[in-house]
UniProtKB/TrEMBL annotation:
Highest taxon above the source species: Bacteria
GO CC list: plasma membrane
UniProt protein name: ABC transmembrane type-1 domain-containing protein
Stored PROSITE patterns: ABC_TM1
Source organism of the structure: Paenibacillus oryzisoli
Family recorded in the similarity comment: Belongs to the binding-protein-dependent transport system permease family.
Chief place where the protein resides: membrane
Membrane topology: Multi-pass membrane protein
Residue stretches making up the ABC transmembrane type-1 domain: 75-276, 359-547
Amino acid sequence: MNLEGGREPLMIIEKKGMGSSIGRLMKDPSSLILVLISFAVLCLFVIYPLIYVIALPGATDWTTFFSKSRYAKALLNTVVSSSLSALTATVCGFIYAYSIHYSNIVGKKFFRFIAFLPILAPSVMTGLAFLLLFGRGGMVSQTMKAWFNVELDLYGLPGLWIVQTISYFPLAYMTITGVLRSISPNLEIAAQNLGARGFKLFRTITLKLALPGVINAFLLVAINCFADFGNPKLIGGNYSLLAVEIYGEIINNEPGLASVMGLILVIPALLVFVIQGRLLAKGSYSTITGKPVSGLNRVKTSRKTDILLFIFNSIMALFILSMFAITILFAFTKNFGRDNTFTLDHMFKIVFNPSSPAVMNSLVLSLISSILAVGFALVLAYVVVRKPFPGKKLLDFTAVLPIALPGTFVGLALIVAFSNGPIMLQGSAILIIVAMLLKQMPVGYRGLTASFKQVDKSIEEAATNLGADSRRTLTTIVFPMLQKTIVANFVYAFMKNMNTLSTIVFLITPKWVVAAVSIFNYAETGTYYWAAAVAVGLMGTTLATLGVMKLIFRSKVKIFDF
């Protein structure tokens, strides 16, 4: 159709396809370098170890695994204990979060603080505290025997179930509390006006809307329980799990058999993801409809329910406070229960002694890994969201793959792939840093990808039109705009890296031993006061580092706001 004067309208058609994508990428050397580096890092440290682990086992290894009943029993134990622990941790996390957002109980700020505390401690510290309280020589066990002539024997599944529930309940709580906080009160008020009250309102509206958070919480806790090594080794006794069996085969120099068990361990984790996806696909859970909700007060629980919720939260708080209290008592007494004399000897011998650098190693390796993880996540999110190039979906899939894999499997893949062959990294700090990076980077990548999609692309295009290349745009435009998200992801990665055990237990050497491994080693040999000292030193170092971050970034990071 002609315009006045007979001229055709000017139409600009953007060329699409692989050829045009490659052409645009070649014209931007900075973007090309970022894409190539991203592919190279993920291929080297994700794809290559995964292929190596799959190809390593021979027919004999597979036959050995399926012919020995102990391995089948370990697999069954892993599925049973992980499922039970994930279920109870999720239920406890939901009730705890529900009480914070839907009740009128007193002390909500205190209960939020209690839920934050276990995040500071390595999961193996829960196992240590359990031994100090309920082990054969534990304080509670000795009291029960002296007063009631009752001998507690919680080793095996009962103890492991309790320990993993307490250890991973905060993870479930954090996941669920975000969903409950975001539920709009208008639907609940409308249901109440239509006659829904009490448990019916909770069952038909609140619980259904919170289902995505509940399922995600179960998923995250289950993955962590599948990979948990320290607690099963300390508490499990004869109740063997696959993660413990893998560790034993690595110690016995049987990488092929260990790889078989690692691959088997991945199957339940992947099944959890599949089940989660199918459940969430069955319904709609949207509550943000564009309708005004300001001024609406959320429907609160009844007085009787408040009392029950307060009792439940108090019991959870008591468990967590007891865990920390017994650890601190052992760290600052000569041998609590036998000699309660206050002393700093354990701290000076184990934490502040240059010949025992476990805490300092944890700090250095965690800082380096967290910086690299967030930096790499930023680059990945930038090129995937902003740059067209062939292989984008493959890069995105590979970037999030490590989050679906149990930490034990990630550590196993790295040690078998880089202990021989063309690239030898066994015994080096590099491999520990890479292991930490792989487990924490996907979380930052997901968060930064969402943040990039919320930032208008025209801002970066304007910088490009003014002559800025991708590197300059990333450092001067993108980074300042996403600073809060970046800092938040760094804090999360740092805290997780400081406390990690399962992912790096295969990679530790005497030179590069870290605090979580030292806690496990001391607890296993019965030197509980040294294990407690390292745990207290680790938590103190983590708190001090987070405090410095808070002073530096101030309102850009929320650490101690409960």
